[in-house]
Design a protein that fits this description.
240 residues; alpha/beta; Uracil-DNA Glycosylase, subunit E; eight-stranded mixed β-sheet; 9 helices; 43% helix; globular
């Protein structure tokens, strides 16, 4: 079983990877992984050993848990969710933004401490997919009995923590990826989204918020996915 104290601290502290000083924060639902008790014990244990940070250095952390190949140059394949987020980030910085440059970015600076890139997860525990729930086998914690009880317990505090981080650090842009969770994204943004050129968009005084499709989602039609994420990158550059 998972150590309860370490598990509680992890769920209530860790929110993602990278650098709060990034102009753009990318926010998703939850991290992949967590296929076995051993995997989760390693992830949470290494996080605690490294100081229990709110934001981890993604490359250093993944090297520590034994999956550093994702960040070891030359990167052979961009991680499929990060690829499109990196391309949008690169375009917003006025840089080349194809698959080659996204792989270089992944190997050199993506979600690193001090990198001006930031990736946050709404829910803290890694899971292979939303239809799978292993944590009732890994812990006796009643909130982990099933995914519904977990979400009911964690979403209010996580939404508040992310809102507070945004209010404190004032990123220029926040990109919420996955329209499936738009209701949660609107709670964080504090305003309803309106559709602008195929994107859901809203603004506060300091931050522009965008709700996009999940990067792994397919778009029918040659070149349409590239065009979609290029549109996002241009909007991040101008905060339109």
């Amino acid at each position: 079983m998972l150590n309860q104290n370490t598990l509680d601290t992890f769920m209530n502290t860790f929110i993602g990877y990278g650098d709060f000083n990034a102009d753009t924060w990318f926010i998703g639902m939850e991290e992949g992984g967590g296929n076995s008790l051993e995997d989760v014990q390693t992830r949470i244990g290494i996080w605690a050993e490294r100081g229990g940070r709110i934001l981890e250095d993604c490359a250093e952390y993944h090297h520590a848990i034994g999956v550093g190949h994702l960040f070891t140059p030359p990167v052979r394949a961009a991680q499929r969710t990060w690829d499109w987020l990196m391309r949008a980030q690169l375009l917003s910085e006025g840089k080349a933004h194809d698959i080659t440059t996204s792989k270089v970015m992944q190997g050199e600076r993506w979600l690193r401490s001090g990198s001006k890139t930031c990736g946050i997860e709404l829910l803290p525990l890694p899971s292979p997919k939303t239809s799978v729930w292993h944590y009732n086998q890994f812990s006796n914690d009643p909130i982990l009995r099933n995914r519904a009880s977990y979400k009911a317990a964690m979403l209010p505090t996580r939404i508040t923590a992310i809102k507070n981080a945004i209010n404190t650090h004032k990123p220029r842009n926040v990109v919420f990826y996955s329209k499936q969770y738009q209701a949660h994204w609107q709670q964080i943004a504090g305003k309803d989204f309106v559709e602008v050129d195929g994107l859901q968009v809203t603004h506060s005084r300091d931050t522009s918020f965008f709700c996009t499709m999940h990067p792994a989602a397919q778009i029918k039609g040659a070149g349409k996915k590239i065009a979609y994420w290029e549109n996002i990158g241009r909007r991040l550059a101008g905060s339109e």
